[in-house]
Design a protein that fits this description.
The protein is an alpha+beta fold and 520 residues long. Helix content is 38%, strand content 10%. It starts with 28 loop residues before the first strand and ends in an 11-residue tail after the last helix. This is SET domain-containing protein.
Length: 520
């Protein structure tokens, strides 16, 4: 379920989880019927707890996650970390600026990447065909029952024959590793059984569990695990295994899935290797539920969020989902040419809209008619290659410049611009203005926008402005990752000692100076 977010900057030295950050059982939180709640107040940037994966496995031993060409600024290793199932065909916001040309997460499409979340259709080009022989490392042999490790090829053959439930190598490995972990620590089982399973997964998981019991060596199945339990564990692996880019695979966690979803969260969860850390993004009072955006709904429209929540069988009580706040990502201009107001649709049904300035109310039909304009404007924006092109197309439409369609076009243009291009600074400032109007919380993608802006400002000699951009990136990194995270320390250093030349900038980012101007 949770779709987590990795730090913006992935340096060669793994970021360290702070020694002052407690493990979940020692954290100042409690698990209740309403999720995980705070038992004391947390200030923004406080790392509330951290957790290391119970088990973790790679997607494939013979194929890489994707072919990164990291000659851009931040050595990004996929800013968005996500779960590994329920392939949604909604518009997932993945506009990571610059780079990733040959990766299927290339994000040089207009910010929609329709994740597929390393799921069944596998956007990340993992070859999950178990027809070839899979090998185990010595370390892995110690994480599963000896009998399973000794005849792993036979287990892989079974998985290939039951590929609806065990077709992914990481799930196949994690299942036998989880069973081995439960044999050593019986308390794991009830904690994992409390996690949700998607209803459409149940039939495949039940059938596979029954067949698996007759296949696995008896000693590899703990006596406490029933067929029903085994089926549920399979469902948990599909619904809650977190994609971990550092190992090109996924991990299973005991406590993180207890946190409830909110489209407007108060906690950010990020990964350092196979460890997750939960950081307060906003002030959290005693008794507040800890929530994070399990779907990574950055800059999504209400319709996209609603579709994803239904598909994931997730409930949300945030202002957007209860109708208390309008759909900021679908902003229009007032029909009165003399009015500068912004018209925002409601997130309730039927959907109406009201101008923020003149209070003119749009009918349901008025709002519905806008979908035609949205599609037409999105199509017209696809060939745009300059900011002037985008501005002219948007001006000729009823869409406000903060509309998701306009944001997507700006994000796409930003990925194609050289830092010394005339439009680079203005496009990236406009992106941040869009985010400021639509996304009311800290997020690594926003940090990336600040980073991209700062890069252009440095290359163009606007050092004071670059320092201000790095200050904003640092402030947001504190809320996403905590003050002692490597990403946060990196932006703190850039804010305090902003590079004044291309060469100094390249040195700070550890990139080839010849490649820093163009980052396509």
């Amino acid at each position: 379920m949770p779709r987590l977010v990795r730090p913006t900057r992935a340096l060669s030295t793994a970021a360290r989880t702070p020694s002052s950050s407690p493990l979940f059982p020692s954290a100042r939180v409690a698990t209740t019927a309403h999720g995980v709640v705070a038992t004391s107040a947390f200030a923004p940037s406080t790392v509330i707890f951290h957790e290391t994966a119970i088990v973790a496995s790679s997607f494939d031993t013979s194929h890489h996650h994707c072919d990164h060409h990291h000659d851009h600024t931040c050595d990004h290793d996929h800013a968005h970390l996500h779960t590994c199932d329920h392939d949604h065909d909604h518009h997932d916001t993945c506009n990571h600026h610059r780079g990733h040309e040959d990766c299927s997460h290339a994000h040089n499409a207009p910010a929609h990447c329709d994740h597929a979340h390393a799921h069944d259709q596998d956007h990340c080009d993992h070859d999950h065909d178990h027809g070839h022989v899979e090998t185990l490392t010595e370390a892995e042999r110690g994480t599963m029952a000896t009998a399973v490790a000794a005849d792993f090829d036979a287990y892989m053959a079974f998985c290939a024959a039951h590929d609806d439930a065990l077709g992914r190598l990481d799930i196949a490995k994690n299942l036998v590793k989880i069973l081995h972990a439960i044999a050593s620590d019986a308390s794991l089982l009830p904690d994992l059984l409390r996690l949700s399973v998607l209803s459409d997964r149940v039939p495949d998981c039940v059938a596979t569990a029954v067949a698996l019991r007759s296949h696995l060596p008896p000693a590899s199945l703990p006596a406490t695990v029933s067929d029903s339990d085994l089926a549920h564990l399979l469902g948990v692996l599909h619904n809650h295994a977190q994609a971990l880019d550092s190992i090109d695979g996924s991990g299973v966690f005991r406590y993180i899935p207890r946190l409830h979803h909110a489209c407007r969260p108060n906690v950010h969860v990020a990964a350092d290797g196979t460890t997750l850390r939960a950081t307060a993004m906003s002030p959290i009072a005693v008794g507040d539920a800890l929530t994070f955006d399990t779907l990574d709904t950055y800059y999504w429209t209400h319709a996209d969020r609603a579709a994803a929540l239904v598909a994931d069988e997730v409930a949300c009580n945030c202002d957007w989902c209860t109708g208390a706040a309008p759909d900021y990502a679908r902003a229009y201009r007032c029909k009165d040419p003399s009015c500068n107001g912004v018209v925002l649709p409601t997130t309730t049904t039927p959907t109406t809209a009201t101008c923020s300035c003149c209070n003119h109310v749009w009918t349901v039909d008025d709002v519905t008619a806008m979908t035609v304009h949205e599609a037409a404007t999105a199509s017209a924006l696809q060939p745009a290659t300059t900011l002037a092109d985008i501005e002219a197309i948007v001006a000729a439409s009823p869409l406000h410049w903060t509309h998701r369609v306009c944001y997507d076009a700006l994000a796409q243009l930003s990925t194609t611009l050289r830092d010394d291009d005339t439009d680079a600074v203005d496009v990236r400032r406009q992106l941040l203005a869009c985010v400021d109007a639509v996304v009311p919380y800290a997020h690594p993608t926003t940090i990336e926008h600040y980073d991209a802006l700062a890069a252009a400002l440095v290359v163009q000699g606007k050092i004071e402005d670059a320092t201000a951009a790095y200050a904003a990136a640092f402030e947001m990194a504190c809320c996403c990752f905590g003050v002692d995270h490597e990403t946060t320390r990196f932006y703190k250093a850039l804010n305090e000692t902003t590079p004044r030349t291309r060469a100094a900038w390249a040195h700070m980012y550890a990139v080839d100076e010849d490649n820093i101007v163009e980052r396509r």
